[in-house]
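Summary of Year 1 activities. Much of the first year was spent building the evaluation harness for sequence design. The harness presents a backbone, in tokenized form, and records the residue chosen at every position. We chose the following record to illustrate the format because it has been used consistently in internal testing since the harness was completed.
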């Protein structure tokens, strides 16, 4: 079984001149803004029974400006993972048997 997935996030924030909480304490207003962009993509496959292997690529970008000062940074990363399905078994007070599966990845229905 092969699973493909992706996550994307974008955020943009600006200062609102004239609406700061400490407006009376400001001597000079400056313009400020920040941008965030995060993206990840992954490919996961079953290696053996409930064990899986995963390769993941991520890109994280930040840009910010405060008055005439500008900064930006981009981080790219590759991640390789090996994992398994975690199965927990327990008994309730009435003596019935219950099983629950908690996992990062859901394999075949049992």
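For this record, the design step produced the sequence shown next.
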């Amino acid at each position: 079984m092969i699973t493909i997935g992706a996550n994307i996030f974008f955020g943009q924030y600006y200062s609102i001149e004239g609406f700061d909480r400490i407006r009376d304490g400001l001597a000079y207003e400056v313009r400020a803004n920040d941008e965030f962009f995060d993206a990840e993509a992954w490919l996961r496959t079953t290696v053996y029974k409930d064990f899986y292997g995963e390769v993941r690529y991520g890109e994280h970008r930040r840009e910010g400006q405060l008055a005439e000062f500008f900064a930006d940074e981009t981080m790219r990363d590759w991640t390789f993972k090996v994992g398994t399905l975690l199965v927990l078994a327990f008994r309730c007070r009435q003596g019935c048997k219950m099983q629950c599966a908690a996992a990062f990845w859901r394999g075949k229905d049992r």
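Residues 13 and 41 are 25 Å apart (CA to CA). Quantitative recovery figures across the full test set are reported in Table 2.
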